[in-house]
Amino acid sequence: MHRLSILLFCLSGLAFTQSGYNHVYDYERIFSNQEINSLNLLYDNHEAKTTNQFALITVSDIGKAKDIQHYATQMGKKLGVGQKDKNNGLLIVFSKTLRKSAIATGLGTEKVITDSIAQYVINQEMIPHFKKGNYFQGVYQGSEWLITFLERPENKIE
Known about the structure:
- By secondary structure, this protein is α/β, with parallel strands linked by helices.
- It has one domain (2-151): Diaminopimelate Epimerase, Chain A, domain 1, CATH 3.10.310.
- The longest helix is centred in the first third of the chain and has 18 residues, at 33-50.
- The chain has helices at residues 2-12, 33-50, 68-79, 115-131, 135-150, and strands at residues 24-26, 53-58, 89-95, 100-105.
- The chain is built from five helices and four strands.
- It is globular and about 35 Å long.
- The chain has a four-stranded mixed beta sheet with strand order 1-2-3-4.
- Helix 3 (68-79) links the parallel strand 2 (53-58) and strand 3 (89-95).
- 47% of the residues lie in helices and 14% in strands.
């Protein structure tokens, strides 16, 4: 299963070089089509305003990665999330099966979204919804929080 996911991620990475790509890779099939469309629209609108690129992956396993954070960092690189010259990507990885989440940032993004901020978003904005079984609400609220934060003028990624 993991090898198939890696292959799909590698192939889907090509999509980040074009506009209008899919930002959501729901391999656990957690979200409805309407929810996926809502997330894609949220991420598209943010990218149009800032050039920052967001992606979301749901997975049931992380293969040989040492933890979900390492997996998220690897997948962010493989997908090519973010503008190459700005490193302004952000990837949310969520596993309902493993009950784990991670936020990986590009080098430019991590100057604004620090590890402590990312952990705050996971713990305070996402997990409370996950505990109630509201996975979409958790991901959407966490994404909105990050986008609002990144769209502040003082947080522009150069």
